[in-house]
Amino acid sequence: MVxxxxxxxxxxxxxTSALLLTTASFGILTGCSSATGQAPDPAVASTRAAEPSAxxxxxxxxxxVPTEGPxxxxxxxxxxxxxxxxxxxxxxxxxxxxxxxxxxxxxxPVTLAFEEFAGREKxxxxxxxxxxxxxxxxxxxxxxxxxxxxxxxxxxxxxxxGIDYSDSTIHLGTYEATAEQLSAFDSADVRxxxxx
Length: 196
What we know:
The chain is mainly β. About 10% of the residues lie in helices and about 30% in strands. It contains three helices and 13 strands. It has a nine-stranded antiparallel beta sheet. It has a two-stranded antiparallel ribbon with strand order 1-2. The longest helix has 9 residues, at about 100-105. The chain is globular.
């Protein structure tokens, strides 16, 4: 399998609207753009246009506070993500609280296409790639759900024999499933969602 030509990274949300502060002490118009002060990339803006925007409350001398929008679970470790498709259901218990698991959770529910890879794992590509900054590598074992940073894929390892520690292999959680359960994901639409 040939890795993707380039790996896209998820960008931090950018402020896209202007805020009007009208108070007796200020009486000025304040506009916001990206955190760098540069105009946003049109390609990024078009991919983020479908995402819900959070309302913001601003008061003088106070931080900006989102008042609505998607929130990551307060407890990431122990969260169960259900993978279902092709007549099979596999539950993964997240064991790491890192930027990669939080990014994955923020996108759910989502549907992915899994495929067999090298007789060792079932893989799928969430797009764009997950946030990996600050997420440590791992030494994968059978029954691990991982994220492989060079290719930007999730992987259900079922034969990790001979695979050693790598900074590129981020451990997300563990699962219990038979080879037949995982094989049902081949060429199927697999839905990922948090189990209530």
